[in-house]
Amino acid sequence: MPRRADTQENTNTAEPMEQQVPFEVTITEHNPERGVLATADVKVGNMMTIRNVKIKEDDYGLTVTMPRTKVPHAEQYKDSVYFADKSMKQQFDQAVEKAYQENVLAPVLDQDEAEEEMEQEESAGMNMGM
């Protein structure tokens, strides 16, 4: 009887497992240029840092744009860094958007709320004296 080679059962599923890579985002500038809300540096795990990631707002909401370089001898630009996996790009975008909202939008909203509270206290104080 011929010997059969041991075969391993393929345990891969149709969907690839999503990897969780830690993204550490630092907002570096607010409104650095026209059409750009902020720029950020993003540390990807302990592997690398991507600088000059732009955060823009368009008709669809916040958009994260990777740094770009000009193609020699052409009037085109290409992303300097890109993800091979769409889910990784989504995680990256979410991390950058979250950092932007926490570092830029939250302090503005907190300041607006504090001003409203002060106005309410002032108007309440004026009413009590009358």
TrEMBL record:
Stored Pfam families: SpoVG
Family matches, as Gene3D superfamilies: Stage V sporulation protein G
The protein, known as: SpoVG family protein
Region (Disordered) residue spans: 1-20, 109-130
Gene Ontology biological process terms in this record: sporulation resulting in formation of a cellular spore
Residue spans of biased composition, Acidic residues class: 110-122
Native source organism of the sequence: Roseburia amylophila
